[in-house]
Fold:
Amino acid sequence: MARKIHTILLQSCPRQDSLCALFLLRREGEKKYPGISTAKIAFWTTGTISPDGRTWKDYLNEGIFPIGVCGSPWDEHTSLEFGDRKAEGKSTTSLVAEELGISDHPHYRELVKAVTAADLNKVSGLDMSSIIKNAYRDPEADWEKIYRWLETGLKWFINNQIRLQEAFRELKSKNAAIRRNNCGGEVVAIMSDNPSICLAASLLRFAACVQIRSNGQVLIAANGRTDISLEKTVVAIRFEELVAQGREKEAQKSTDSLSVTGQMPLVPNWCYQMPGDMLLNGSETAPGLEPTRIPALKILQTVCETTIRVNKKNPVAT
Structure:
């Protein structure tokens, strides 16, 4: 059994992979490795080779945890003991995640995949990995500043994964109303302020999602992974909005123009967003739009009756 961890060894100028592994250890490693969440940082300068003959096991028994160095089990670089971990598709982050048993945890698996992919492949100069690498060339940068910058972004990333898991639970609860549409698929409607609801609905293979927010605004999204389209729905919803506002005569005269993408002066509170195939009655970038006057059940019924199938060459996620 390893002693309480008092020091974490990192490579000099630690890259994204090592810093993300550090993030996971500090966040989830305390139970298995007491002390690791507050352990001090020391830097290793000799790759997988130990200059004094001590092995990673010796360091661990001394309370020193090596990340991405010293030929440890959490070092993706080639070593005599573990071979070429990168050839196996491993990164330091993925090795640490496996050690902590969180590789497939819904809060962390996408982070592990993204970091590993960036570590194994060539990526653009604007990705996080390249930014971190280049930051060390700035005289004002040091690893702690870089880590604090990265830590904030990683927390946002993880929080988004948490919201997605919460959205899955919401959609599987009794609060979700599910109806079959005229194409044979299922449309789900739910009252929720969770911004990940529509993404979760598409991953759960719903044909479309109707999200009613607590402020009365509504988001309707077709599943971009399918051939379902809202091009008829937008006309029907805008028509129903005009009727709900007591402007039925205007609605009857304007049916030919109600299909336009974006916003339209006649019904400004419903924006048809393309690409994306979404009907937005307010959004993060347009929160001031008037909430719809169409009853929620009427919206669900309209969506079920008007969604159609189209030939999408490259369906994508919403």
Observations:
- The first strand starts at residue 7 and ends at 11.
- The chain has a mean pLDDT of 91.
- DSSP finds ten helices and eleven strands in the chain.
